[in-house]
Design a protein that fits this description.
Elements: E1 11-14, E2 18-21, H1 25-32, H2 34-37, H3 59-79, H4 86-97, H5 120-134, H6 140-147, H7 153-157, H8 165-178, H9 187-192, E3 194-197, E4 200-204, H10 208-226, H11 229-250, H12 259-266, H13 271-275, H14 288-298, H15 302-312, H16 318-328, E5 334-338, H17 344-358, E6 370-376, E7 387-389, E8 395-397, H18 398-401, H19 407-410, E9 414-421
Parallel strand pairs: 4-7
Antiparallel strand pairs: 1-2, 3-4, 5-9, 6-9, 7-8
Helix pairs in contact: 1-4, 3-4, 3-8, 4-6, 5-6, 8-10, 11-16, 15-16
């Protein structure tokens, strides 16, 4: 905490939006907390910088960008006579600021590799409960909005929904830092077109073209950036390193680890273990065992993984050494993608080739050869729909309002099959 005479209403210079205002002192206190400062050391896009060198931006930057858009959205809605109190504004800003605080090292790349069975949304909520204790209930309202239990549902939609501030920031920010111009969206324009009808977030009809571009950009960014073959290859490599390390730890093998990583490798903590089977409420004290797990998790960031992997390149275990050397030197495996599953005989031929080349046991091949699926859809028909508001007060779903987009196509989940294996495998020439 800062001295009482310190000015906490700061201005932060952001490369995407320019100046971002920290309009409440409580927000500054949250930003200064070690839990939040940790986000400076977690890359927004995992190992995407292996493909797009500029993609080294962090969860810290994304959280501040989302905060900026939320502040803008609240002012826009107020100008359209939507009632939002100062307490609600402060709570909504706190909720969006903390919406990704539960991310672990390399963000989505290791989503459930550190603590199996728990996602970053659940951890974000746990962090919020812990901070709420530290700030004497100051986040009660923010937690209600974050979890969708506050009566004004449109505030929750601004945090998680088809047009939430999270998506509007990450598409624009990720496009900016990767240099992929197909992902550029008019986030400012979309925010200024937001409105509320019957407690639901809607878009003024003048913003329909911006929404169309947003949906197309989202689809393109997934295939060109988030699900790029080399990105997928690098993230599978990282996952396999953690899996192998955990397997060796379970066998009692000695492994160099930072203290926090050692905690989760040598005494695996599942999602159930993490919470101890308890459901947390805003006004309840978090048990010591859960706080201990959270503090250990809060000690993890990208550097724990990379420092350990560098040391593991010389580990006597052949598989771990191979994997870590590949990560250190960016020796990515090949990814083949098809619309149909790969024939079993094709996969078997590649496995046999890799086994012979690296002299591996059958049970170790899975770390170098792996078949799986990836999927993507730009518009979820299962979530609340994007409604377009016309001058006469009528609402139309974007699927009927748009004369350009085929929403049936955009909302369809596209599933593709991939095969992951070393580039020097004989199967690469099959």
């Amino acid at each position: 905490m800062c001295p009482a005479n310190t000015n906490k209403k700061k201005i932060i210079n952001d490369p995407v939006y320019g100046f971002i205002n920290i309009s409440f002192e409580s927000l500054f206190d949250l930003i200064e907390h070690p839990y939040f400062q940790r986000l400076r050391r977690i890359k927004q896009l995992g190992l995407t910088n292996f493909v797009y060198p500029g993609a080294t931006h962090t969860r810290f930057q994304h959280a501040l960008g989302s905060l900026h858009l939320m502040s803008m959205a609240i002012q826009v809605l107020r100008s359209k006579e939507v009632e939002i109190t100062m307490d609600e504004e402060e709570a909504a800003l706190s909720a969006i600021l903390l919406h990704d605080i539960g991310h672990g090292p390399f963000s989505h790349a290791l989503e459930e590799s550190i603590v199996p069975g728990i996602n970053h949304e659940e951890l974000s909520l746990l962090f919020m409960h812990a901070l709420n204790m530290k700030f004497n209930g100051g986040l009660d309202l923010a937690i209600q909005i974050f979890t969708g239990r506050y009566p004004k549902q449109f505030l929750h939609q601004l945090i998680t929904g088809q047009l939430d501030m999270d998506r509007l920031d990450y598409l624009k920010r990720d496009s900016f830092f990767t240099g992929v111009t197909e992902g550029v969206i008019g986030s400012d324009r979309i925010v200024r077109m937001l409105n509320v009808v019957n407690d639901q977030l809607v878009v003024d009809h003048k913003g329909i073209y911006s929404i169309e571009k947003f949906l197309i950009a989202r689809r393109l960014m997934y295939w060109q950036v988030y699900l790029h073959k080399a990105v997928l290859s690098s993230e599978l490599l990282l996952e396999n390193i953690l899996k192998r390390a955990r397997e060796l730890a379970g066998q009692g093998e000695e492994l160099f680890c930072t203290p926090s990583l050692h905690y989760f490798l040598f005494q695996p903590v599942s999602g159930t273990d993490f919470f101890g089977g308890q459901k947390l409420e805003s006004n309840t004290k978090i048990p010591a065992n859960i706080i201990n797990n959270l503090e250990k998790f809060a000690g993890l960031d990208d550097s724990d993984i990379m420092a350990s992997a560098k040391v593991w390149t010389d580990h006597p275990d052949q598989v771990l050494s191979i994997l870590c050397t590949k990560l250190k030197n960016r020796e990515l495996s090949r990814i083949e993608i098809r619309d149909e599953p790969f024939p079993d005989e094709y996969i078997t031929a590649i496995k046999q080739s890799v086994k012979q080349q690296h002299r591996l046991r059958n049970e170790d091949i899975k770390y170098l050869v792996h078949a799986g699926t990836i999927s993507n859809n730009a518009y979820s028909s299962e979530d609340e729909q994007i409604q377009i508001l016309y001058h006469d007060g009528n609402l139309k779903d974007i699927s009927t309002a748009s004369d350009m987009l085929d929403i049936a196509v955009l909302s369809k989940t596209v599933r593709k099959y991939f095969l992951y294996y070393p580039k020097d495998a004989l199967g690469s020439s099959i």
